[in-house]
Amino acid sequence: MFDFAIVGGGIVGLSTGLALGKRYPHARILVLEKESQWAFHQTGNNSGVIHSGIYYKPGSFKAKFCRDGSRSMVEFCQEHGIDHEVCGKVIVATEEQELPRLENLYKRGLENGIKVQKISPEAVKEIEPHVKCVGGIRVFSTGIVNYKQVCLKYAELIQQQGGELRLNTKVLKISPSGQNQVLETNNGSFETRFVINCAGLHSDRIAKLGRVEPQAKIVPFRGEYYELTPEKRYLVKTLIYPVPNPDFPFLGVHFTRMIDNSVHAGPNAVLSLKREGYKKTDFNLGDFAEVITYPGFWKLAAKHADEGIQEIIRSFSKAAFTRSLQKLIPEVQAQDLVPTHAGVRAQALMNDGSLVDDFLIVPGHNSIHVCNAPSPAATSSLEIGTAIVAQIPQQSHLETVVTTM
Ligand SMILES: Cc1cc2nc3c(=O)[nH]c(=O)nc-3n(C[C@H](O)[C@H](O)[C@H](O)COP(=O)(O)OP(=O)(O)OC[C@H]3O[C@@H](n4cnc5c(N)ncnc54)[C@H](O)[C@@H]3O)c2cc1C
Q1: pLDDT at site 207
Q2: CA 37, 364, 174: angle at the middle one, nearest 5?
């Protein structure tokens, strides 16, 4: 019998476990993960960037959690000896017509309380000598880390707090049992007072198992990366981003120096035909049918056909991918790029075709469901974990009783 059971051992599930243990030190906490390793899906295949929070709408959870989260992530890494670097990044306009959007982004950065600086093309060259641009912004607080390592530390700390962690345990059914709930898995049944759904690409399905209608469907978008060959890594010192499309800030391939010193280029964003489809050929009939019978998908496709087609072209044509990167660094050639890992984003999509932009946390009966946790959820994970725990109705039976003699 547990007080809390968390479904999903990605960075959001594990940070929630950590925050719960701090809030309720005597609680019996369980984390269930279907894979044989922590952080196997989104968290383990992301860009490894500690985002600053410049892009997000002022006042949104994303903006607040990211600004605070970038600080708490760096502090966490310092405290626990996890390799990381606050190397900063540049966002550059490569054409005059992008300058007004760059200016807006700069203002947004200031509004979000981020340390940003407008810099000339010459100043960009001092930071990134191979970039060609007409103007730039320097963002100081951006950093890099390996989020898998962060998750391993979260898991270790949960165990130290007395929490129970189960890998290879897939939640198949959630049944009520009086005031409690029983999670039926491939590895036995677990009874709990409260369920926290952090199942990423499957969060809408777990919500339904818990009799909650999430009002948005998870649509998987694969992000594919290339890597610079080791002899060309000198082309990139830190992180180089284009000016984003305000409607799709996650579009626009960029260069990222990773914490292991490799340099990744990407990711793009293409519809994945399987929720955990890391290869172009991956296909699952059930997952695919769910997307194409969802009205929201067709509304999104109709509205943004051009962007979608460009992304598909970039996915199948290395030449097109290279051309996008050459806008930032003209010297990059196709032979300097080798395909590397891909990640699949769990993007919640509403029935009206709009993408859910902010984090979406839906309460249920004795349960909470994280129905949208897109980027920068890894950066913001410590803040998200704390926010989830704050939304759980007070569990008075778990409060520490202080007795006086
Ligand atoms: C390509 C890409 C690049 C990104 N880059 C960045 C970045 O640089 N910085 C940043 O801050 N964010 C980035 N993000 C976003 C970030 O990685 C995600 O927002 C974050 O990892 C989400 O974490 P999660 O725990 O919600 O999901 P996940 O990491 O996907 O974890 C969910 C877990 O639930 C498990 N699960 C699902 N169903 C069940 C079940 N039935 N039973 C048991 N377990 C189950 C899954 O196996 C999985 O391990 C990126 C994302 C992608 C895809």
Answers
A1: 97
A2: 55
Q: Which of 385, 379, 377 is nearest to 77 (CA)?
A: 379
Phi first, then psi: give them for residue 269, nearest 5 degrees.
-150, 105
> Which one-letter DSSP state was computed for residue 186?
B
Each residue of 329-365: pLDDT tens digit?
999 999 999 999 999 999 999 999 999 999 999 999 9
pTM: 0.96
- Ramachandran area for residue 159 (φ above 0: left; ψ -120 to 50: alpha; else beta): alpha
62 CA distance to ligand 1 middle (Å): 16
Classify residue 355 as left (phi > 0), alpha (psi -120 to 50) or beta: beta
Helix then strand count (H, E) for the chain reads: 11, 20
> What percent of the chain is predicted at pLDDT more than 70?
98
Atom 1 in ligand 1: residue holding the nearest Cα: 343
Two tokens at 25?
Answer: 């030190």
Distance of alpha carbon 102 from alpha carbon 142, whole angstroms: 17
Percentage of the chain exceeding pLDDT 90? 90
Mean pLDDT of the chain: 95
pLDDT exceeds 90 at position 393: no
Q: Are 202 and 11 in contact (CB under 8 A)?
A: no
Given a cut of 60, whether residue 115 has pLDDT beyond it is yes
Pocket test for ligand 1, best of 16, 37, 42, 208 (most atoms within 8 A of CB): 42
Summarised one tens digit per residue, pLDDT across range 298-309 is 999 998 888 888
Query: Rounded to the nearest whole angstrom, what is the distance from the C-alpha of residue 401 to the centroid of ligand 1?
Result: 37
As a whole number of angstroms, the distance between CA 188 and CA 32 comes to 11
Average pLDDT (5-26) is 97
* Cβ–Cβ under 8 Å, residues 26 and 214: no
Give the dihedral sign, CA 150/154/156/160: positive
Mutation probe of ligand 1 site: the residue of 15, 41, 67, 87 with most atoms within 8 A of C-beta: 41
Q: What are phi and psi of 91, to 5 degrees?
A: -115, 125
User: Kind and range of the H or E element at 63?
Assistant: helix 61-80
